[in-house]
Amino acid sequence: MRSLFVMIVREAALIAFAAVLLGFGYGFVMKKGLFAPTQPTSNLPVAPPAPTFIDYEEALRCFREGSALFVDARHEYDYKLGHIRGAINVPLKDFDLATSPLAPTPKNQLIVTYCDGAECNSSIELAQKLAAAGFTNVKMFFGGWNEWQQHHLPTE
Amino acid sequence: MKALRKVIDNAFVALSARMLLGFIFVVASTDTIADPTAFATSISYYKIVGAPLTLIIATVLPWLELLCGLFLLFGMLTKGSSGLILLMLVVFTGGVLSGIARGLDISCGCFTRDPTVDKIGWLKVSENLLLIVLGFVCLFTNSTRFTLVHGVDPDSSPARRSASDAS
């Protein structure tokens, strides 16, 4: 049994060493991961502002002002069960700007994305995709559907 | 216990376990090797380790998976690779269980970087447990048929090991 353990440790150490060499070597040669180049900002086009998080008070203010377009990033099934009043459904899974309801939306429109709540990432992923697609005023409602319901705010 | 030992030592059972586990780990590694930054993002969604460490893990882990998978497929360094695979599977399962306990709605990050598929859940835990069983078969089998073990390390044959243990 002891010789088996020694063999496992010896072979595992050899493989782990090779994996470290290959991983760092490949990253260094291909300029990926840890070694991905950071481009000089002076030569880059001005990037649109990155999406920012807002809390429910800010989301509610946007909702009451009517200034924001709420975008539900959850699946269609969840959206149909209930959503923030006036929100449109753009499931992250099928996101394609050309075919989504957001296609005719002006790029400077304030958009608030949300999903279930603090423990989901769909709203973040969708906000990033929208920003990459050229939308300049995207915010992520971090508390999402769960927090909206907890405060008994308007739904449909 | 004897019956279990007989099954584990069956050359075809050991070969099947090696092939299946090796193939799965090779497949799992290809997507992550191609894009370590996206893999680091998947790891960060678990909210277990900090940003600098996720990038280091994303740099090394896919290669560890690839090497272990290849060694299992070719029947070389099988004890070390199955030991490492078992260790990885235990850590992965712990991560998934921790995610489930915290109610995280995230992608596993196991086979694809698409955040909308392969969500963590009890199915993923079951898959991992099945792979852990295969790992144990690869680790504890005495069968060296269909392997290249003897070609690389003659000391690793069961007969030599038994002799070594006796001494």
What does this structure look like?
Chain A has 156 residues and is an alpha/beta fold. Chain A has helices at 2-30, 56-65, 76-81, 122-132, 144-150; strands at 52-54, 68-72, 88-89, 110-114, 138-141. In chain A, strand 4 (110-114), helix 4 and strand 5 form a beta-alpha-beta unit. The N and C termini of chain A lie far apart (65 Å). Chain B is an all-alpha fold and 167 residues long. Chain B has eight helices and no strands. The longest helix of chain B is centred in the first third of the chain and has 24 residues, at 11-34. The interface between A and B is large, with 35 and 39 residues.
Offer a concise description of the structure.
With 156 residues, chain A is α/β, with parallel strands linked by helices. Chain A is 40% helix and 12% strand.
Helices and strands in order, then pairings?
The complex is a heterodimer of chains A (156) and B (167).
Chain A: H1 2-30, E1 52-54, H2 56-65, E2 68-72, H3 76-81, E3 88-89, E4 110-114, H4 122-132, E5 138-141, H5 144-150
Parallel strand pairs in A: 1-5, 2-3, 2-4, 4-5
Chain B: H1 2-9, H2 11-34, H3 36-44, H4 51-74, H5 78-101, H6 122-140, H7 149-152, H8 158-166
Structural class of chain A: alpha/beta
Largest sheet entry of chain B: none
Biggest interface between protein chains, with counts per chain? A-B, 35 and 39 residues
Structural class of chain B: mainly alpha
**Gyration radius of chain A, rounded:** 23 Å
For the secondary structure, the number of strands of chain A is 5
Report helical residue fraction of chain A.
40-55%
The helix count of chain A comes to 5
Q: What is the averaged pLDDT score of chain B?
A: 84
Shape of chain B: globular
Q: With helices defined by DSSP (H or I, 4 residues minimum), what is the helix count of chain B?
A: 8
Low-confidence stretches of chain B: none
CA distance, first residue to last residue of chain B: 25 Å
Order of strands across the main sheet of chain A:
1-5-4-2-3
The H/E string of chain B reads HHHHHHHH
Outline the low-pLDDT stretches of chain A: none
Distance between the termini of chain A: 65 Å
